[in-house]
Automatic annotation (TrEMBL):
Lineage: Bacteria, Pseudomonadati, Pseudomonadota, Gammaproteobacteria, Chromatiales
Name used for this protein in its record: Formate dehydrogenase subunit gamma
Listed PANTHER family: FORMATE DEHYDROGENASE GAMMA SUBUNIT (PTHR30074:SF6), FORMATE DEHYDROGENASE, NITRATE-INDUCIBLE, CYTOCHROME B556 FDN SUBUNIT (PTHR30074)
Keyword Membrane: yes
Membrane-related topology note: Multi-pass membrane protein
Keywords of the record: Cell membrane, Electron transport, Heme, Iron, Membrane, Metal-binding, Transmembrane, Transmembrane helix, Transport
GO annotations of cellular component type: formate dehydrogenase complex; plasma membrane
Length: 359
């Protein structure tokens, strides 16, 4: 090999070496360079003083976990941006209040339909003779019908807030429902305290008629007359009416109390208190509506002559003897002729000769 060829071969080997080393350096560089980011973050963190994680994500993580921050706004929990109990509240509200409770209302309506189909209307055994006894005073009737009207307004508006999404949006559309829901909620919020006052007066006024007695026990044992077909003895209020009264006092009282807590968030209620109040309010209110169906049915279609006392103030002596015999014995000396007290409405105002049949 000439000297020239030997020099060429050396240069080629040298090029080869340079090329291989260059490839090695590029490959190593490609692997190591991205790690520089870590070094940068470490340096940046060290400079900024935040050495444990990203401060922004830490802050929002804490907000999400309900940790209280600092604010100039006054009030309980004002520093808590997100309260996690809201998720549990929403799930319980949708599952129990909106999901399970409607079945109680449906069961009440089905129960009424069954009783109606099996036993029919509870009719008067004797046709009204025209004699009546005083049952409810004017102020009591005004109180009862005012309370009943407000109850119905509250039931309709309250139920439309609970089921509006599912039931009313398909009918009214989202915009129509939003407008109605705003109106319904305002009405509900204003009517609630007036209704609460009516219920409180009602309880105070009628508690003396509803003290449980031995006769109530006998009344229940006879199934209120349904089971044995014979009317069990009863005083001014029978066992069933007393159950309705004490249900109003206890469960109704709970609905009213939780309603006041929700209506006036000015006593330092926390969000947890409001969530609990809202659940108890909705569940107890639906129970109340369910029982109300029974009360309204018994007072109207279910029992012949029952409505007279609450509309005219007087009940026919026949109704009084049949349904409240012990009470009739106490008031029979106040018995008068329907015409004497100017009655033109009600069962007793229409004597058999005017076409009222016993049934
Ligand atoms: C449209 C619905 C209603 C009808 C048709 C109705 C009917 C009646 C009738 C006829 C009576 C008299 C029963 C008797 O003389 O023995 C009565 C009593 C009574 N009603 Fe109603 N009512 C209605 C709504 C309500 C509501 C919403 C409440 C309560 C929130 C209520 C609470 C009472 C109470 C406490 C009594 C007396 C029972 C007792 O003291 O034990 N009613 N109702």
């Amino acid at each position: 090999m000439s000297d020239q060829d030997a020099a060429k071969a050396r240069r080629r080997r040298a090029h080869m070496k340079v090329m291989l080393w260059s490839l090695l350096v590029i490959a190593l560089g490609a692997m190591v360079a991205p790690l520089g980011g870590y070094v940068y973050v470490e340096v940046a963190q060290a400079q900024s003083g935040f050495e444990n994680g990203n401060p922004r994500s830490d802050t929002w993580g804490a907000v999400r976990e309900g940790v209280s921050g600092t604010t100039t706004v006054q009030g309980p929990e004002a520093g808590v941006l997100i309260q996690n109990g809201g998720q549990n509240w929403r799930q319980l509200r949708n599952a129990i209040a909106a999901g399970v409770m409607p079945w109680f209302m449906a069961a009440a309506l089905i129960g009424i339909a069954l009783v109606m189909a099996i036993f029919g209307r509870n009719r008067l055994d004797q046709p009204p003779s025209g004699k009546v006894v005083p049952r409810w005073k004017l102020w009591e009737r005004v109180l009862h019908w005012t309370t009943a009207t407000l109850f119905i307004v509250l039931a309709i508006t309250g139920l439309s807030l609970l089921f509006g999404r599912a039931v009313l949006i398909p009918v009214l559309g989202a915009g129509g429902f939003a407008a109605y829901a705003g109106f319904a909620m305002t009405l509900h919020n204003y009517v609630g305290p007036v209704f609460t006052a009516c219920v409180a007066i009602m309880i105070l006024a009628w508690v003396r008629h509803n003290i449980p007695s031995r006769a109530d026990w006998e009344w229940f044992k006879a199934g209120g007359g349904f089971l044995k077909g014979k009317h069990p003895p009863a005083g001014r209020m029978n066992g069933g009416e007393k159950v309705w009264f004490w249900f109003i006092a206890l469960v109704g009282g709970l609905v009213c109390a939780t309603g006041v807590v929700l209506d006036f968030p000015i006593w330092g209620q926390t969000r947890e208190t409001m969530q609990l109040a809202s659940l108890v309010h909705a569940i107890a209110a639906i129970l109340w509506v369910s029982l109300f169906f029974g009360h309204a049915w018994i007072g109207t279609l279910g029992t012949e002559g029952a409505i007279d006392g609450m509309t005219t103030g007087y009940s026919s002596s026949e109704w009084a003897k049949q349904h409240h015999d012990l009470w009739y014995e106490q008031v029979k000396d106040q018995e008068v002729d329907a015409s004497e007290v100017g009655l033109t409405a009600g069962k007793a105002a229409k004597t058999p000769s005017e076409g009222t049949s016993p049934g």
